[in-house]
Amino acid sequence: MTHSRKARNMGSGESSQPTASSERHPELKLKKDKKCSPLAFRSMSLRWAVRVDQWEPSIDQWNQALSILDREERERISRFHFFDDAKRSLLGRLLIRRLLHHQLNIPQKDISLKRTKKGKPFLANRTACPDERLRNTDFNVTHHGNWVALSAESMFTVGCDVITIQTPGTGSVESFFYHMKSNFSKEEWAYISSSDCGERGKLTRFMRLWTLKESYVKATGTGLSVEPNRVCFQLGPDSDADRKCYISTSNPVSKPERKLLRDFLKRGNNIAALSGGGGGEGGPLYFF
Predict the structure, then answer these.
(1) pTM, rounded to two decimals
(2) Does residue 118 lie in a domain region?
(3) Using one digit for the tens of pLDDT, what is the confidence trace for 217-267?
């Protein structure tokens, strides 16, 4: 798969422990310099990704990881019927706590997480963060297949989504597209169904657009109240990171929703990620 010039290959390492990769603003590296002015640390932009299949915890390690969470978090994880689902959820919660403890310098005992009405986790006691400029840090976690990813921004709301490029279910790509076409605008579908990119290319383009739509919904917290074909993305060539976002004129939205969308699109704070592997292979991860 070709990817954007701004993409970062988040390939896995050799260790049997989970490995995390991050992308930060350069100014954060100045934090250890005692002569540096505090004004240098106004913002934070962070991306982490962990390979799920590289973590095979023992019972003691699993219980130790669970002990870091609060009771509500542990109960949510215990409801999963399959271990891999529970592991993805646990890794997501650990990434959030790592963010709050190591990046926002909040002691583990002071971390208090709650959820919005739409289910998005947030830091309940923001004053526990010693740096006032980081207290409004927003974060979002997503997982699919062999990847768990976290995005965080201190200056604006963020949403992220990750998906493995493979045909969902047991049907054909043609059948899958038939059932999903209504979620896209005419322009988006023309981009997806271009005859010169082959079946794999069409599926990749579909996933690129779908992850962007999902990341928007997660960032704004609008949930299923916004139909996917209302929020449209116009992408350039697959090798180009440049993209434009717009409101579909054939699917009008309310004034409050329109303002929310415009504010969101001005910032470009949607983070999508694609895994190049299929069939459970994992593959490298690309952010765009």
Answers:
(1) 0.73
(2) no
(3) 788 776 655 677 777 777 766 544 455 555 554 555 566 656 655 655 555
Say how many domains are in the chain: 1
| DSSP secondary structure code for residue 141 in this structure | E
**What is the C-alpha separation between 117 and 95, in angstroms, rounded?**
22
Distance CA 113, CA 2 (A): 38
The sign one gets for the Cα dihedral 67, 97, 105, 24 is: positive
Per the structure, the complete domain to which residue 241 belongs is given by: 164-273
CATH of the domain at 244: 3.90.470.20
Taking the C-alpha atoms of residue 203 and residue 186, their distance in angstroms, rounded to an integer, is 17
With a CB cutoff of 8 Å and minimum separation 6, the contacts of 122 are: 113, 114, 115, 116, 138
The one-letter amino acid code at 184 reads F
Sheet holding 147-153, edge to edge: 20-21, 45-51, 147-153, 138-144
In a domain, 243, yes or no: yes
DSSP string, 47-116: EEEEEGGG----HHHHHHHHHHS-HHHHHHHHT-SSHHHHHHHHHHHHHHHHIIIIIS---GGG--EEE-
